Amino acid sequence: MAVSESRNASAEEVLKAALELFSRQGYGATTMRQIAEKAGTSLGNVYHHFKNKEEIFATLLNRYFQVLLDPNLRLNQVFARAAFPEDLEEMAAHIEEVVDRFGREIMLIYIDVIEFSGKHVRWFYETMAERFHRIYDEPLKARKERGELGEVDPVFAVMLSVRWFFYFFTVEKYFGVPMHFGMDPHQAVHEFIKVLRCGLLPRGEPCPPGQEPAHKGKAKGRRARS
């Protein structure tokens, strides 16, 4: 193994160890020595890669956010197609995949809020609206002009859906309270999607109880996917 590859592997072991410790016991309760012991390396080697504990913590969060911004992430490919709200089931499924894969990183967000007042995560959420408007403004505006969507701001509805799905699956999987909506998680997702689709109906077209709403325009006469 080349020297540079060995150094990278060593840094990765430090990050892996720190992620496990931070997500389990928090930032303040984790020491650099604990990270070194968990990584199976010396304390000096940890400092060789990272100047301090906060740099390790920030690196872990930034890595997660870069994954969320990666165009190749399947969730982002759903966003890029801008087929909302017909794609809500697919969106929910891919958000669940992200939550399953990055549970420890998601826990770091809560730790950052508690121990750093959101210092390392604020930028990601401050730029959220801009990112979604850049993707969805034109296609959803066109659909509203064709009468396919109602008065609800559709980009706001996209952001609401994304945040709700992330929150819902995080609580279900990592907060120790499955079925916290009092129903099977997939049924809860189904009910939320119905709420979103009914709210997006053009004015004057009611949402029949227990039925999926039909859209006007090109989609008239077709039932929305459940």
From TrEMBL:
The cross-references to PROSITE patterns, in alphabetical order and at most eight, read:
HTH_TETR_2
Coiled-coil residue windows: none
Q: Which residues bind DNA?
A: 31-50
HTH tetR-type domain ranges (all copies): 8-68
Q: Where is this region: Disordered?
A: 207-226
Q: Does the keyword Transcription regulation apply?
A: yes
Comp. bias intervals (Basic residues): 216-226
Output the InterPro entries linked to this UniProt entry: Homeodomain-like_sf, HTH-type_TetR-like_transc_reg, HTH_TetR, Tet_transcr_reg_TetR-rel_C_sf
Q: SUPFAM superfamilies per the record?
A: Homeodomain-like, Tetracyclin repressor-like, C-terminal domain
Query: Does the UniProt entry include the keyword Zinc?
Result: no
Molecular-function GO terms, alphabetical: DNA-binding transcription factor activity; transcription cis-regulatory region binding
Q: Which UniProt keywords apply?
A: DNA-binding, Transcription, Transcription regulation
- What PANTHER family does this protein's entry cite? HTH-TYPE TRANSCRIPTIONAL REGULATOR BETI (PTHR30055:SF234), HTH-TYPE TRANSCRIPTIONAL REGULATOR RUTR (PTHR30055)
The name this protein carries in UniProt is: TetR/AcrR family transcriptional regulator
Give the organism, scientific name: Thermoanaerobaculum aquaticum
Lineage, uppermost ranks: Bacteria, Pseudomonadati, Acidobacteriota, Thermoanaerobaculia, Thermoanaerobaculales
